[in-house]
Design a protein that fits this description.
The chain has 207 residues and is mainly alpha-helical. It has one domain. 49% of the residues lie in helices and 8% in strands. It contains 5 helices and 3 strands, in the order H-H-H-H-H-E-E-E. Strands 2-1-3 form a 3-stranded antiparallel β-sheet, with helices on one face. The protein is globular. The termini are far apart.
Amino acid sequence: MVIGLVVLILIFVGYKFLVKTNPGNNNSGPKQEAIKEGGHSAAFNSSIDSMMMNYLTLADAFVNADSVKAKAAGENLVKSYNQIPLDELKKDTAAKTDAAFIYTADSGSLATAKAFTDSIINGSNLAAMRQNFKTINESLYPFLKGINYAGKKLYWYNCPMAFGEDNSANWLSYSEEKMNPYLGLHHPEYKGTMVHCGETQDSIISK
């Protein structure tokens, strides 16, 4: 009986040894991290942050009715558009079979924003430049939604009288304080009295 017990112990020890040394059964190694759905690389997120900082500089230039600074900010904004690794959108695990469609839609939105930013750079009339800024916002808003934006909370503001009665326009901001880029501090009619005019229509929060 003792011999039988010894044999059983040896079989058990031998089995544990084989399991431990067999690479196919070794579960003690590092586990592969799952891909986060809708996640992006640090480089992608950094490029979006850079784009938004240049965008905010452009918005601030319009608040101050400074066409020279608006042109300079526009040039930097175009550079930041070009640095966004859009091909990464094709690998978005949240998109699955729709990844190609989302890539096409988002790249189209960004292309439109770039075209109207170029118009600001080449513009000479502040009112027309602000009209181009309106279209940039109408392109960047769906772009940021489409890429599953992962930065700081953004507010989507609306000015109901940006270009006159019932002629509204939107803009983006990190701040809860509204600084209207359409009416601004030096508006020919309102001066600085309408700089805080606007209402919150949406917010874009990191998923």
